[in-house]
Design a protein that fits this description.
353 residues, alpha+beta, Alpha-Beta Plaits, 11 strands, globular
Length: 353
């Protein structure tokens, strides 16, 4: 029953963290202050009232569930029933996960944190193998986002050394903004030939630009300036999604910027490619891409040592992991928590192994 004891302790700590992360009394007071306006039909306060009411309700539910599970787990420990212990342990883990997400969301206080995210990847240094590592990192983001229930849309910008994803869902930008900056890779290149380069460690780097999806820039794309072609759609893994040419490539002839979208819906591909193209043309006209990339070089996010040490180290938080496969499988939650200053350990199921 050691697993239950560790989770009882974890839930007790989590309740303390929950209380310190959210001012329930102030929220209740604000709801009471807004109530007269709500009953008078003042629609200007309905959004704030609804959000406050939902958040306070979620807080009370989490706190109540945690307190109940602590008491129940103590009773289960006293009976030494292994079946009940396994079920209770799973419920405690789920409660801890919900509490962790709630506590994290209290950190999302920046102006654009509740917006969708536009995440752009660009390789600056390294062999052709860096295109695979760029795809690996993009896959890690995709799998994490899918676990959160976010919608992911892919576009390619320019050549194979640059791509963009659009992440849609509440607080998408807040979850990913800590990834903004320089990512360095150390690896053994598959392309090394000859005695001098064989088995040598190579260095590659790419920048990740994470931006909130704000209002569409006021840039006019003239029909005569666009070259639109259709191509086969493909899934994120690169396999053919269907036999019809639903993919869309748009080139803005005056700037030479090319955007490609290969999702399953041709209508959505055309819409998404056009949206991203407008952003990129606006950035080119304002020269913001080069400025952003230069600033990103000074913001070192993470090192991926994939040659000999096989370790991923976070420069911002000091976090490290040797489980590289899990990281690229989307297990990046701990890095996001650490970036926002949250330490939240969830004991494993069963007997604590």
């Amino acid at each position: 029953m050691g697993g239950l004891s560790s989770k009882i302790n974890a839930l007790e700590r989590a309740i303390g963290n929950l209380k310190s992360s959210y001012d329930a009394a102030s929220s209740q007071k604000r709801l009471e202050d807004l109530w007269p306006a709500v009953t008078a039909g003042d629609i200007s306060v309905l959004k704030e009232y609804g959000k406050l009411e939902n958040r306070l309700g979620e807080y009370n539910e989490l706190k109540g569930d945690a307190e109940f599970l602590i008491d129940y787990a103590k009773d289960v420990e006293a009976t030494a029933n292994q079946t009940d212990a396994a079920v209770t342990s799973k419920e405690m883990t789920n409660c801890l996960l919900r509490m962790r997400d709630f506590i994290l969301e209290q950190k999302f206080t920046e102006k654009d944190d509740d917006r969708n995210a536009i995440i752009s990847f660009q390789i600056h240094q390294g062999w052709d193998q860096m295109t695979q590592y760029m795809e690996d990192l993009r896959t890690a983001y995709r799998k994490f986002a899918e676990k959160k229930g976010f919608q992911i849309e892919y576009v390619d910008v320019g050549d194979s050394r640059e791509c963009t994803i659009r992440v849609s869902g509440e607080y998408s930008y807040a979850f990913f903004r800590g990834e903004n900056g320089l990512h360095k890779f150390y690896y053994i290149s598959d392309n090394t030939t000859g005695h001098s380069s064989a088995k040598k460690t190579h260095t590659g780097s790419l920048t990740v630009r994470v931006r909130p999806e704000v209002e569409m820039p006021s840039v006019e794309l003239k029909k005569e300036d666009l070259e639109i072609s259709h191509l086969a759609a493909s899934t994120p893994g690169g396999s053919n999604a269907n036999t019809s040419n639903t993919g869309v490539r748009i080139t803005h002839k005056p700037t030479g910027i090319t955007v490609t979208s290969r999702m399953r819906s041709q209508h959505r591909n055309l819409e998404l490619a056009r949206e991203i193209l407008i952003y990129r043309v606006a950035e080119r006209l304002e020269n913001t891409v080069k400025k952003d990339v230069r600033s990103l070089w000074g913001h070192f996010v993470r090192t991926y040592k994939l040659a000999t040490e096989r370790i991923i180290s976070d420069n911002q938080t000091g976090m490290k992991t040797y489980d590289i496969e899990s990281f690229f499988n989307g297990e990046i939650e701990d890095y996001i928590l650490a970036y926002h200053g949250i330490s939240f350990e969830i004991p494993k199921n069963g007997n604590g192994k």
